[in-house]
Protein backbone atom coordinates (compact mmCIF):
# COMPACT_ATOMS: atom_id res chain seq x y z
CA UNK A 1 0.00 0.00 0.00
CA UNK A 2 1.28 3.48 -0.95
CA UNK A 3 1.53 6.27 1.63
CA UNK A 4 -0.22 8.66 -0.74
CA UNK A 5 -1.84 8.48 -4.15
CA UNK A 6 -2.81 11.58 -6.12
CA UNK A 7 -5.23 10.70 -8.92
CA UNK A 8 -6.70 12.54 -11.90
CA UNK A 9 -3.95 15.17 -12.07
CA UNK A 10 -2.94 17.29 -15.04
CA UNK A 11 0.82 17.77 -15.30
CA UNK A 12 2.72 20.79 -16.67
CA UNK A 13 3.65 18.79 -19.81
CA UNK A 14 -0.06 18.50 -20.65
CA UNK A 15 -0.60 14.85 -19.66
CA UNK A 16 -4.04 14.32 -18.05
CA UNK A 17 -5.54 11.71 -15.73
CA UNK A 18 -2.12 11.09 -14.21
CA UNK A 19 -1.67 9.36 -10.85
CA UNK A 20 1.34 10.02 -8.63
CA UNK A 21 2.15 7.34 -6.06
CA UNK A 22 4.25 8.30 -3.03
CA UNK A 23 6.18 6.07 -0.66
CA UNK A 24 8.69 7.18 1.99
CA UNK A 25 8.71 10.77 0.76
CA UNK A 26 9.45 9.91 -2.88
CA UNK A 27 7.45 9.37 -6.03
CA UNK A 28 7.58 5.71 -6.92
CA UNK A 29 5.18 5.71 -9.85
CA UNK A 30 3.79 8.45 -12.10
CA UNK A 31 1.41 6.88 -14.60
CA UNK A 32 -1.75 7.64 -16.47
CA UNK A 33 -4.82 6.00 -14.90
CA UNK A 34 -2.91 4.18 -12.13
CA UNK A 35 -5.16 3.01 -9.29
CA UNK A 36 -3.82 1.22 -6.17
CA UNK A 37 -4.53 1.16 -2.44
CA UNK A 38 -3.00 4.03 -0.45
CA UNK A 39 -3.23 5.39 3.09
CA UNK A 40 -4.43 8.70 1.62
CA UNK A 41 -5.95 9.34 -1.80
CA UNK A 42 -6.29 12.84 -3.20
CA UNK A 43 -8.50 13.38 -6.24
CA UNK A 44 -7.01 16.35 -8.13
CA UNK A 45 -10.20 16.55 -10.22
CA UNK A 46 -8.27 17.34 -13.38
CA UNK A 47 -6.39 20.27 -11.84
CA UNK A 48 -2.71 21.02 -12.29
CA UNK A 49 -0.07 19.33 -10.16
CA UNK A 50 3.41 20.81 -10.59
CA UNK A 51 6.77 20.56 -8.90
CA UNK A 52 7.40 23.35 -6.35
CA UNK A 53 8.18 26.85 -7.53
CA UNK A 54 11.85 27.81 -7.33
CA UNK A 55 13.18 31.36 -7.02
CA UNK A 56 16.68 31.56 -8.48
CA UNK A 57 17.33 35.15 -7.37
CA UNK A 58 16.32 36.78 -4.10
CA UNK A 59 17.65 39.04 -1.31
CA UNK A 60 16.46 37.55 1.95
CA UNK A 61 18.66 39.75 4.15
CA UNK A 62 16.72 42.84 3.04
CA UNK A 63 13.23 41.40 2.58
CA UNK A 64 10.26 42.81 4.52
CA UNK A 65 12.36 45.77 5.72
CA UNK A 66 10.10 48.19 3.85
CA UNK A 67 10.07 51.59 5.54
CA UNK A 68 13.24 50.98 7.62
CA UNK A 69 14.76 53.40 8.34
CA UNK A 70 12.68 55.29 5.76
CA UNK A 71 10.80 54.67 2.53
CA UNK A 72 12.54 54.87 -0.89
CA UNK A 73 10.87 58.07 -2.08
CA UNK A 74 11.99 57.94 -5.73
CA UNK A 75 11.73 54.17 -6.14
CA UNK A 76 15.08 54.16 -7.98
CA UNK A 77 17.96 51.66 -7.84
CA UNK A 78 20.43 54.27 -6.60
CA UNK A 79 18.22 55.48 -3.73
CA UNK A 80 17.62 51.81 -2.90
CA UNK A 81 21.37 51.14 -2.64
CA UNK A 82 21.81 54.30 -0.50
CA UNK A 83 18.91 53.27 1.73
CA UNK A 84 20.33 49.77 2.21
CA UNK A 85 23.63 51.45 3.23
CA UNK A 86 21.70 53.36 5.92
CA UNK A 87 19.88 50.28 7.15
CA UNK A 88 22.86 47.90 7.23
CA UNK A 89 24.56 49.25 10.39
CA UNK A 90 21.21 49.11 12.22
CA UNK A 91 20.52 45.45 11.41
CA UNK A 92 20.27 42.98 14.25
CA UNK A 93 20.57 39.26 13.84
CA UNK A 94 17.21 38.60 15.48
CA UNK A 95 15.44 41.06 13.18
CA UNK A 96 17.00 39.55 10.04
CA UNK A 97 16.07 36.03 11.17
CA UNK A 98 12.52 37.05 12.05
CA UNK A 99 11.90 38.79 8.72
CA UNK A 100 13.43 35.93 6.74
CA UNK A 101 11.36 33.29 8.56
CA UNK A 102 8.20 35.29 7.91
CA UNK A 103 9.09 35.48 4.23
CA UNK A 104 9.72 31.71 4.14
CA UNK A 105 6.22 31.20 5.59
CA UNK A 106 4.80 33.31 2.75
CA UNK A 107 6.88 31.32 0.27
CA UNK A 108 5.65 27.94 1.51
CA UNK A 109 2.04 29.14 1.32
CA UNK A 110 2.69 29.99 -2.34
CA UNK A 111 4.32 26.63 -3.10
CA UNK A 112 7.79 28.20 -3.33
CA UNK A 113 10.07 25.60 -1.73
CA UNK A 114 13.56 26.52 -2.97
CA UNK A 115 15.18 29.95 -2.95
CA UNK A 116 18.64 31.15 -3.96
CA UNK A 117 19.27 34.26 -1.87
CA UNK A 118 22.13 36.67 -2.29
CA UNK A 119 23.44 37.90 1.06
CA UNK A 120 25.46 41.08 1.37
CA UNK A 121 28.98 40.28 2.59
CA UNK A 122 30.25 43.88 2.75
CA UNK A 123 29.22 44.40 6.38
CA UNK A 124 32.39 43.68 8.43
CA UNK A 125 30.27 41.90 11.06
CA UNK A 126 28.87 39.52 8.41
CA UNK A 127 25.78 39.63 10.58
CA UNK A 128 23.35 38.88 7.74
CA UNK A 129 25.43 35.88 6.64
CA UNK A 130 25.30 34.42 10.13
CA UNK A 131 21.58 35.15 10.41
CA UNK A 132 20.69 33.57 7.07
CA UNK A 133 22.82 30.49 7.77
CA UNK A 134 20.70 30.08 10.91
CA UNK A 135 17.53 30.56 8.83
CA UNK A 136 18.80 27.98 6.32
CA UNK A 137 19.18 25.44 9.14
CA UNK A 138 15.75 26.18 10.59
CA UNK A 139 13.81 26.02 7.31
CA UNK A 140 15.67 22.99 5.90
CA UNK A 141 12.83 20.55 6.69
CA UNK A 142 10.48 22.48 4.41
CA UNK A 143 12.47 24.83 2.16
CA UNK A 144 15.85 24.66 0.37
CA UNK A 145 17.70 27.91 0.93
CA UNK A 146 20.91 28.46 -1.04
CA UNK A 147 23.11 31.44 -0.11
CA UNK A 148 25.25 33.51 -2.46
CA UNK A 149 28.13 35.52 -0.95
CA UNK A 150 27.26 38.84 -2.60
CA UNK A 151 29.66 41.80 -2.38
CA UNK A 152 27.05 44.57 -2.80
CA UNK A 153 29.69 47.35 -2.66
CA UNK A 154 32.00 45.66 -5.20
CA UNK A 155 34.54 42.99 -4.29
CA UNK A 156 37.40 45.26 -5.47
CA UNK A 157 35.79 48.65 -4.82
CA UNK A 158 35.41 47.70 -1.13
CA UNK A 159 39.05 47.43 0.09
CA UNK A 160 38.25 44.42 2.30
CA UNK A 161 35.69 43.00 -0.14
CA UNK A 162 37.56 39.83 -1.13
CA UNK A 163 38.50 38.97 2.48
CA UNK A 164 34.92 39.32 3.66
CA UNK A 165 33.60 37.28 0.75
CA UNK A 166 36.09 34.49 1.50
CA UNK A 167 35.08 34.57 5.18
CA UNK A 168 31.44 34.16 4.16
CA UNK A 169 32.37 31.09 2.11
CA UNK A 170 34.22 29.60 5.09
CA UNK A 171 31.14 30.26 7.24
CA UNK A 172 29.03 28.22 4.81
CA UNK A 173 27.81 30.37 1.91
CA UNK A 174 27.14 28.08 -1.06
CA UNK A 175 27.74 30.26 -4.12
CA UNK A 176 30.25 32.96 -5.15
CA UNK A 177 28.57 36.27 -6.06
CA UNK A 178 29.78 39.46 -7.69
CA UNK A 179 28.72 42.81 -9.14
CA UNK A 180 31.22 43.71 -11.90
CA UNK A 181 29.27 46.70 -13.29
CA UNK A 182 29.50 48.37 -9.86
CA UNK A 183 33.31 48.18 -9.71
CA UNK A 184 35.15 51.45 -10.43
CA UNK A 185 36.03 50.77 -14.07
CA UNK A 186 35.21 48.32 -16.83
CA UNK A 187 38.64 46.73 -16.42
CA UNK A 188 38.21 46.37 -12.64
CA UNK A 189 34.82 44.79 -13.33
CA UNK A 190 36.39 42.29 -15.71
CA UNK A 191 39.15 41.57 -13.17
CA UNK A 192 36.53 40.93 -10.48
CA UNK A 193 34.81 38.38 -12.74
CA UNK A 194 38.12 36.60 -13.37
CA UNK A 195 39.16 36.50 -9.69
CA UNK A 196 35.75 35.39 -8.45
CA UNK A 197 35.39 32.62 -11.04
CA UNK A 198 38.89 31.36 -10.22
CA UNK A 199 37.99 31.38 -6.50
CA UNK A 200 34.82 29.37 -7.21
CA UNK A 201 36.73 26.90 -9.40
CA UNK A 202 39.32 26.35 -6.65
CA UNK A 203 36.65 25.76 -4.02
CA UNK A 204 34.25 23.76 -6.20
CA UNK A 205 31.51 26.39 -5.79
CA UNK A 206 28.86 27.66 -8.18
CA UNK A 207 28.94 31.29 -9.37
CA UNK A 208 26.01 33.71 -9.62
CA UNK A 209 26.79 37.34 -10.33
CA UNK A 210 24.66 40.43 -10.58
CA UNK A 211 25.93 41.23 -14.04
CA UNK A 212 25.35 44.28 -16.23
CA UNK A 213 22.34 45.52 -14.24
CA UNK A 214 22.50 48.68 -16.26
CA UNK A 215 21.05 50.35 -19.36
CA UNK A 216 24.58 50.97 -20.67
CA UNK A 217 24.91 48.93 -23.88
CA UNK A 218 28.69 48.86 -23.36
CA UNK A 219 28.39 47.07 -20.03
CA UNK A 220 29.61 43.71 -21.37
CA UNK A 221 30.76 41.76 -18.32
CA UNK A 222 28.59 38.85 -19.44
CA UNK A 223 31.16 38.33 -22.20
CA UNK A 224 33.92 37.92 -19.59
CA UNK A 225 31.69 35.72 -17.44
CA UNK A 226 31.03 33.37 -20.38
CA UNK A 227 34.73 33.41 -21.26
CA UNK A 228 35.73 32.44 -17.70
CA UNK A 229 33.08 29.69 -17.59
CA UNK A 230 34.55 28.22 -20.75
CA UNK A 231 38.21 28.79 -19.76
CA UNK A 232 37.82 27.21 -16.32
CA UNK A 233 35.63 24.33 -17.52
CA UNK A 234 32.74 25.55 -15.35
CA UNK A 235 30.07 24.74 -17.91
CA UNK A 236 26.57 24.94 -16.42
CA UNK A 237 27.95 26.12 -13.06
CA UNK A 238 27.91 29.87 -13.72
CA UNK A 239 24.88 32.16 -13.74
CA UNK A 240 24.52 35.75 -14.92
CA UNK A 241 21.72 37.55 -13.09
CA UNK A 242 19.85 40.52 -14.56
CA UNK A 243 21.91 41.09 -17.78
CA UNK A 244 19.72 44.13 -18.43
CA UNK A 245 22.34 45.92 -20.54
CA UNK A 246 21.72 43.23 -23.17
CA UNK A 247 18.36 44.93 -23.79
CA UNK A 248 20.23 48.00 -25.07
CA UNK A 249 23.16 46.28 -26.82
CA UNK A 250 23.83 46.43 -30.52
CA UNK A 251 22.14 43.52 -32.32
CA UNK A 252 25.29 42.57 -34.19
CA UNK A 253 27.28 42.29 -30.96
CA UNK A 254 24.51 40.17 -29.36
CA UNK A 255 24.61 37.83 -32.37
CA UNK A 256 28.20 37.03 -31.41
CA UNK A 257 27.56 36.98 -27.65
CA UNK A 258 24.68 34.48 -27.52
CA UNK A 259 26.61 31.55 -29.07
CA UNK A 260 29.49 32.21 -26.65
CA UNK A 261 27.07 32.03 -23.71
CA UNK A 262 25.53 28.84 -25.10
CA UNK A 263 28.95 27.26 -25.61
CA UNK A 264 29.88 28.01 -21.96
CA UNK A 265 26.43 26.83 -20.77
CA UNK A 266 25.99 30.01 -18.77
CA UNK A 267 22.62 30.19 -17.00
CA UNK A 268 20.61 33.41 -16.97
CA UNK A 269 18.26 34.83 -14.35
CA UNK A 270 16.01 37.67 -15.39
CA UNK A 271 14.08 39.55 -12.71
CA UNK A 272 11.12 41.02 -14.59
CA UNK A 273 9.35 42.88 -11.75
CA UNK A 274 12.51 44.67 -10.73
CA UNK A 275 13.95 45.22 -14.21
CA UNK A 276 10.78 46.82 -15.55
CA UNK A 277 10.62 49.21 -12.58
CA UNK A 278 14.32 50.08 -12.14
CA UNK A 279 15.68 50.16 -15.70
CA UNK A 280 15.15 52.88 -18.28
CA UNK A 281 15.01 55.53 -15.54
CA UNK A 282 17.27 57.93 -17.43
CA UNK A 283 15.10 57.69 -20.55
CA UNK A 284 12.39 60.10 -21.50
CA UNK A 285 10.26 58.55 -24.27
CA UNK A 286 10.41 56.04 -25.79
CA UNK A 287 11.41 54.35 -22.53
CA UNK A 288 13.37 51.10 -22.64
CA UNK A 289 11.97 48.06 -20.82
CA UNK A 290 15.43 47.04 -19.66
CA UNK A 291 14.74 43.31 -19.41
CA UNK A 292 17.27 40.96 -20.97
CA UNK A 293 16.53 39.17 -24.25
CA UNK A 294 14.71 36.15 -22.84
CA UNK A 295 13.14 34.64 -26.01
CA UNK A 296 16.42 34.99 -27.92
CA UNK A 297 18.40 33.39 -25.07
CA UNK A 298 15.95 30.48 -24.91
CA UNK A 299 16.06 30.06 -28.70
CA UNK A 300 19.83 29.69 -28.38
CA UNK A 301 19.33 26.81 -25.92
CA UNK A 302 20.44 28.89 -22.91
CA UNK A 303 18.75 28.07 -19.60
CA UNK A 304 16.74 31.08 -18.36
CA UNK A 305 14.88 31.47 -15.06
CA UNK A 306 12.75 34.32 -13.74
CA UNK A 307 13.54 35.54 -10.21
CA UNK A 308 11.58 37.57 -7.66
CA UNK A 309 14.70 39.54 -6.56
CA UNK A 310 12.97 41.79 -3.99
CA UNK A 311 9.89 41.86 -1.77
CA UNK A 312 9.14 44.94 0.34
CA UNK A 313 12.72 46.11 0.71
CA UNK A 314 14.75 49.27 -0.07
CA UNK A 315 14.49 48.59 -3.81
CA UNK A 316 10.92 47.42 -4.22
CA UNK A 317 7.85 48.15 -2.10
CA UNK A 318 5.71 45.38 -3.57
CA UNK A 319 5.87 41.60 -4.12
CA UNK A 320 4.58 38.63 -2.15
CA UNK A 321 6.70 35.57 -2.98
CA UNK A 322 4.24 34.60 -5.72
CA UNK A 323 6.34 33.16 -8.57
CA UNK A 324 3.25 33.15 -10.81
CA UNK A 325 3.20 36.95 -10.54
CA UNK A 326 6.87 36.91 -11.57
CA UNK A 327 6.12 34.59 -14.51
CA UNK A 328 3.22 36.78 -15.58
CA UNK A 329 5.35 39.93 -15.59
CA UNK A 330 8.12 38.15 -17.52
CA UNK A 331 5.59 36.92 -20.06
CA UNK A 332 4.22 40.42 -20.62
CA UNK A 333 7.48 42.35 -20.71
CA UNK A 334 9.15 39.84 -23.07
CA UNK A 335 5.97 39.58 -25.19
CA UNK A 336 6.08 35.79 -24.73
CA UNK A 337 2.45 35.30 -25.71
CA UNK A 338 2.71 32.34 -28.10
CA UNK A 339 1.35 29.09 -26.64
CA UNK A 340 4.85 27.60 -26.38
CA UNK A 341 6.36 30.77 -24.91
CA UNK A 342 3.71 31.03 -22.19
CA UNK A 343 4.55 27.48 -21.13
CA UNK A 344 8.25 28.44 -21.14
CA UNK A 345 7.41 31.21 -18.64
CA UNK A 346 6.04 28.56 -16.27
CA UNK A 347 9.25 26.54 -16.72
CA UNK A 348 11.24 29.69 -15.87
CA UNK A 349 9.89 29.63 -12.30
CA UNK A 350 10.05 25.84 -11.88
CA UNK A 351 12.36 23.45 -13.78
CA UNK A 352 14.74 26.04 -15.26
CA UNK A 353 15.31 27.64 -11.86
CA UNK A 354 15.78 24.20 -10.24
CA UNK A 355 18.50 23.49 -12.81
CA UNK A 356 20.32 26.68 -11.81
CA UNK A 357 20.23 25.74 -8.12
CA UNK A 358 21.27 22.18 -9.11
CA UNK A 359 18.52 20.82 -6.87
CA UNK A 360 18.71 17.06 -6.46
CA UNK A 361 15.58 14.94 -6.77
CA UNK A 362 13.49 17.78 -8.20
CA UNK A 363 10.58 16.97 -10.50
CA UNK A 364 7.51 14.80 -10.97
CA UNK A 365 9.23 11.55 -11.90
CA UNK A 366 9.72 8.22 -10.11
CA UNK A 367 12.65 8.54 -7.72
CA UNK A 368 12.23 12.30 -7.21
CA UNK A 369 11.27 13.82 -3.86
CA UNK A 370 7.50 13.90 -3.44
CA UNK A 371 7.45 17.71 -3.39
CA UNK A 372 4.53 19.17 -5.33
CA UNK A 373 1.81 21.77 -5.52
CA UNK A 374 -1.86 21.30 -6.41
CA UNK A 375 -3.15 24.46 -8.08
CA UNK A 376 -6.65 25.77 -8.72
CA UNK A 377 -5.95 25.83 -12.45
CA UNK A 378 -6.30 23.36 -15.31
CA UNK A 379 -2.96 24.04 -17.01
CA UNK A 380 0.18 26.14 -16.70
CA UNK A 381 -1.13 29.06 -18.75
CA UNK A 382 -4.28 29.28 -16.64
CA UNK A 383 -2.09 29.11 -13.53
CA UNK A 384 -0.17 32.19 -14.71
CA UNK A 385 -3.33 34.01 -15.83
CA UNK A 386 -5.06 33.57 -12.48
CA UNK A 387 -1.98 33.53 -10.18
CA UNK A 388 -3.84 30.39 -9.18
CA UNK A 389 -4.53 29.49 -5.57
CA UNK A 390 -2.15 26.87 -4.20
CA UNK A 391 -4.74 24.45 -2.84
CA UNK A 392 -2.14 22.12 -1.31
CA UNK A 393 1.64 22.16 -0.97
CA UNK A 394 3.49 18.91 -0.26
CA UNK A 395 7.07 18.34 0.86
CA UNK A 396 8.47 14.78 0.99
CA UNK A 397 4.93 13.44 0.66
CA UNK A 398 3.56 15.46 3.59
CA UNK A 399 1.12 18.37 3.29
CA UNK A 400 2.75 21.54 4.64
CA UNK A 401 0.28 24.19 3.43
CA UNK A 402 -3.35 24.32 2.45
CA UNK A 403 -5.43 27.19 1.06
CA UNK A 404 -9.19 26.99 0.41
CA UNK A 405 -10.27 27.41 -3.23
CA UNK A 406 -10.80 30.99 -4.27
CA UNK A 407 -14.27 30.67 -5.72
CA UNK A 408 -16.89 33.41 -5.53
CA UNK A 409 -20.45 32.28 -4.87
CA UNK A 410 -22.60 34.62 -6.92
CA UNK A 411 -26.12 35.79 -6.13
CA UNK A 412 -27.34 36.99 -9.50
CA UNK A 413 -30.90 37.37 -10.77
CA UNK A 414 -31.67 34.62 -13.28
CA UNK A 415 -28.43 32.72 -12.57
CA UNK A 416 -29.09 30.67 -9.45
CA UNK A 417 -26.09 28.86 -7.92
CA UNK A 418 -23.53 30.39 -10.27
CA UNK A 419 -19.89 30.63 -9.21
CA UNK A 420 -16.74 32.30 -10.54
CA UNK A 421 -13.11 31.32 -10.14
CA UNK A 422 -11.30 34.30 -8.72
CA UNK A 423 -8.10 32.41 -8.08
FE1 LIG B 1 19.49 41.11 -7.01
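Sequence proposed for the structure above (423 residues):
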Amino acid sequence: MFDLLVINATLPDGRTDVSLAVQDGKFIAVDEGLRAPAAEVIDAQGLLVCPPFVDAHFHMDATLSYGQPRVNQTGTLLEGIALWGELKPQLTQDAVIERALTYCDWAVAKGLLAIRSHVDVCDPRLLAVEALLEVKRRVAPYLDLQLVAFPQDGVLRDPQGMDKLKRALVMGADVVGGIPHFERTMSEGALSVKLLCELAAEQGKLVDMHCDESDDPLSRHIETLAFEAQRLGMHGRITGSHLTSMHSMDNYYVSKLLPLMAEAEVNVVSNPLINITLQGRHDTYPKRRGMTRVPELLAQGINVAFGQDCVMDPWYSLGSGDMLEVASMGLHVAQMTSQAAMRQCFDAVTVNAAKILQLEGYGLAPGCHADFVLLQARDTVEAIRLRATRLSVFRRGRRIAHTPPSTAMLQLPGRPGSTAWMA
